[in-house]
Write a structure and sequence with these properties.
By secondary structure, this protein is α+β, with helices and mostly antiparallel strands. Helices cover about 40% and strands about 20% of the residues. The chain has three helices and four strands.
Length: about 80
């Protein structure tokens, strides 16, 4: 694995919960950051999504991001 991905999420986001459970099942390491509790992360998510706080936004070790990715997209990006 190339490193841990960072998932920007909120507590109420169903898509976030789904992706987290899929990544847990596949043993994909990630760090979760709740953008409602971290203004700097919220600003990062806005920048990555054209001014919108769209979650889940996933940051990969190479600095790239995907918004609401599928498990297959995450696995492809990290080489799993």
């Amino acid at each position: 694995m190339l490193g841990t991905v960072t998932m920007y999420s909120t507590t109420w986001c169903g898509y976030c919960r789904r992706l987290k459970s899929q990544m847990d099942r596949e043993n994909i390491a990630y760090t979760e950051i709740n953008i409602e509790q971290d203004p700097e992360s919220a600003a990062f998510v806005e920048k990555a999504n054209g001014g919108n706080q769209t979650v889940p936004t996933v940051l990969f070790p190479d600095g790239s991001t995907l918004t609401n990715p599928s498990l297959a997209q995450v696995k492809q990006r990290i080489g799993a």
